[in-house]
Write a structure and sequence with these properties.
alpha+beta, 23% strand, four-stranded antiparallel sheet, single chain
Length: 193
């Protein structure tokens, strides 16, 4: 395994054919969640006995792994951000970093569709004093404020990478799709009482 400067083991690695798989050790294992894996494809030297150097670096929420041997270097980066939390619970195989940015954005969008739906259901039915409309604005403002707060605060508190523009866009998309679904009339309301 690879240890940090305090001699704490934070990466375990194994070779599978010509690929190296790295598993990040984290507190998630204590909760029986999956560990994050990162794959360095085709990184092994072409012949046995060739010296190999493995390097791992964790800086500003980005893990960089590299393998150097036989005159070539293979490098892979994985951004650690709050949007990557799905990796800890995904039961069908583990993410290996190849498409992490796109997968994280999809996770953000899908996880916010439900919130967008309920925000959309908070439609205004204007009463004579306009109170219903005010309540709707509070629901929308509260949901958007909560999501923005989490997306800004969690990286700062946990020392992760800042939330990317793709994740902000995915959050807006998920909320928008959910709100649009709330406006689709149900079969019961379309057929009448």
């Amino acid at each position: 395994g690879l240890a940090n400067d305090r001699a704490e083991l934070f990466l375990e690695w194994r070779q599978k054919g010509r690929d190296y798989e790295f598993t990040m050790r984290s507190r998630a294992a204590r909760l029986r969640l999956h560990s994050v894996e990162l794959l360095l494809p085709d990184a092994a030297p072409p012949a046995p006995g060739v010296p190999l150097s493995l390097r791992a670096e964790w800086r500003a929420g980005i893990v960089t792994l590299s393998a150097t041997g036989a005159g070539r270097t293979t490098t892979r980066h994985l951004v650690l951000a709050p949007s990557g939390n799905w990796r800890f619970v995904w039961p069908w195989g583990r993410n290996r970093g190849e498409y992490a940015g796109a997968e994280d954005a999809i996770w953000v969008a899908v996880s916010l569709v439900g919130i967008g739906y309920w925000v959309g259901r908070a439609r205004a039915v204007d009463g004579p004093d306009g109170r219903e409309r005010g309540r709707r604005l509070w629901v929308i403002g509260g949901a958007v404020g909560m999501i923005a707060g989490v997306m800004l605060a969690v990286p700062a508190i946990a020392g992760l990478q800042r939330t990317s523009a793709a994740d902000w866009g995915a959050a807006a998309l998920g909320l928008g799709v959910g709100a649009a679904l709330a406006y689709i009339p149900s079969a019961r309301s379309a057929s009448g009482p």
